[in-house]
Amino acid sequence: MIGRLKGQVLSKQAPDLLLDVQGVGYELLVPLNTFFDIPDVGQVVTLHTHFVVREDAQQLYGFAQIEERTLFRQLIKVNGVGPKMALAILSGMSVAEFARCVQKDEVATLVKIPGVGKKTAERLLIEMRDKITQIVGDISVDTSKPVAEDISLEAESALIALGYRPQDAAKMVNRVAGDHITNAEQLIRAALKSMV
């Protein structure tokens, strides 16, 4: 129904995004990888979208890369995987990293993502094996390391929004503390990468 949106960023608070498209404000949920690619408030962005309609809600999901949306659509077809879990998977790893998990049968890596149990991880590996080669993207992940207190707090808030418990989010952020990280985006990526 709605496949793509181009508009001005009105507000962004992971994983929520408000986009002004010619006077209409669209609320979207985006994975963290997309959230990091979104420019600052006031800037224009183009997102590939997927519209989910359920009895109790209508939700629009946005993705910076077409491969992310393609993988999201494949993930929600897997029994036991809904949009929330698919978003968590795409926030916890890139499309390329997910592809590597599937190709190497890495159940342990998938179960580290909030909400993904062992049975679901095994089901994902089985059902995605044939489909993953069609959607593998070449996305690099920044593995650098933190600095200021406000960056740490922002990173912890984003991790909590993804479903991690506050104490776990704090531990993840502290674990990857170092001198090379200059912003919250790098810190969150490093924290998520440390769980993989």
Helical residue percent band: 40-55%
CATH-assigned fold name of the largest domain? DNA polymerase, domain 1
Order of helices and strands: EEEHEEHHHHHHHHH
Q: Helix tally? A: 10
Q: Main sheet: which strands, in order across?
A: 1-2-3-5-4
Average pLDDT reading = 83
Structural class computed from helices and strand pairing: alpha+beta
Outline type? globular
Number of domains: 3
DSSP summary, beta strand count: 5
The radius of gyration over CA amounts to: 16 Å
Percent of sequence in beta strands: 15-25%
**What CATH architecture of the largest domain would you give?**
Orthogonal Bundle
CATH class of the largest domain: Mainly Alpha
For the terminal residues, how far apart are their CA atoms?
Answer: 35 Å
The CATH superfamily of the largest domain is 5' to 3' exonuclease, C-terminal subdomain
Low-pLDDT sequence parts: 137-147
Note the main sheet.
5 strands, mixed, barrel
- Oligomer state equals single chain
